[in-house]
Amino acid sequence: xxxxxxIPDKHYFTIGEVSEWCGVERHVLRYWEKEFVQLKxxxxxxxxxxxxxxxxxxxxIYTLLRVDKYTIDGAKQxxxxxxxxxxxxxxxxxxxxxxxxxxxxxxxxx
Length: 110
What we know:
Elements lengths: L11 E3 H8 L3 H10 L6 E3 L2 E5 H16 L4 H9 L1 H28 L1
Antiparallel strand pairs: 1-3, 2-3
C-alpha cells in the first residue's frame, strides 16, 4: 500500500502543494473534484485551497482508485457507504494525522 507523508501542519494547501504531497498531477485532482462531490476545496477567486480534511479524503480516493483498483463509479459507491469507507482506510488516514499532531506536541514538550 502506498504510504503518504504526514499531513503538514497547515490549514490550507494550494493545488501545487497537494499535487506534490500525494503524487497526483494537478489535472487529475481537478478531475477528481468533478467526480467526487465530497471533495470541495475552498475557492478564493480563481484559486483552490485544500484543507486537511480534503487531504484525508484524497488519501481515501487515491487508495480506492490506484491501490484497490476501483473504477470511479465503484469508488463513489464505497465513499457513500460509511462502513465500507472505514474498511477502505478512512481510519488509517485519521491515525496518521493524529500521529503527526502528537509528534509535534512531543517536540514542543522537549
